[in-house]
Amino acid sequence: QLQLQESGPGLVKPSETLSLTCTVSGGSISGSTYYWGWIRQPPGKGLEWIGSIYYSGSTYYTPSLKSRVTISVDTSKNQFSLRLSSVTATDTAVYYCARLPYSSGWVDSWGLGTLVTVSS
Amino acid sequence: QSALTQPASVSGSPGQSITISCTGTSSDVGSYNLVSWYQQHPGKAPKLIIYEGSRRPSGVSNRFSGSKSGNSASLTISGLQAEDEADYHCCSYAGSSTLVFGGGTKLTVL
Question: Are B90 and B37 in contact (CB under 8 A)?
């Protein structure tokens, strides 16, 4: 049974960098049949795809966040990570890590999500 | 890349059918048969209920169905049940390995 678990600080100060890690268990992150991604949901709002990474390290980001986002993968730890720089209050959201079948356009497995609040 | 457009809310009585629309553009919904739908109960992670426009993952009730026409997609839930009360989100592939979501629709079962 595949499980994804987000971890990282729940509170980040404005202008600092948000960093989250997703640990994958029950499956290998190195498989060629999946992307691994981050999706967020501001309180009371809809979902926003942030970006995805392939095990090889190829990355894809949503245009509106591209200048501030870095997604990386550590196959030795079966983890992938999100860094979002220069955060403001509008980056306050529940952040989900997720698995996306390769070349599919959908998410077939989600983490439980972690709330990150941007506040001084 | 703009968010897909969904109604903020829909409602229906038990046993009825409801349809939730999802409108995109010729760059996303209209170009690919890769619309997906997710059900999200309060405080929970979303769950995939429709992919590739109309296919259901194993274990998802056949009361859920999806369709697409032009730049719009729809999710229909038939035989509404109390447990269907949730938020529903559409998503489309938008090319170059990118995705775009809708704003979400709150379904109330009366």
Answer: yes
Distance CA A68, CA A86 (A): 7
Residues 6+ apart with CB under 8 A from A91: A12, A18, A84, A116, A118
pLDDT for position A105 = 86
Residues of B whose CB is below 8 A from A107: 36, 38, 46, 48, 91
**Residues shown for chain A:** 120
Mean pLDDT of B62-85: 98
Query: Could you tell me if A107 lies within 8 Å of chain B, comparing CB atoms?
Result: yes
> What does the pLDDT read at residue B15?
97
Contact B36 A105 (CB under 8 A): yes
Q: Name the DSSP letter for residue B57.
A: -
Query: For the segment A45-92, what is each residue's pLDDT rounded down to a tens digit?
Result: 999 999 999 988 999 999 999 999 999 999 999 999 999 999 999 999
Residue A114 DSSP SS3 = strand
Q: Does A52 touch chain B (CB under 8 A)?
A: yes
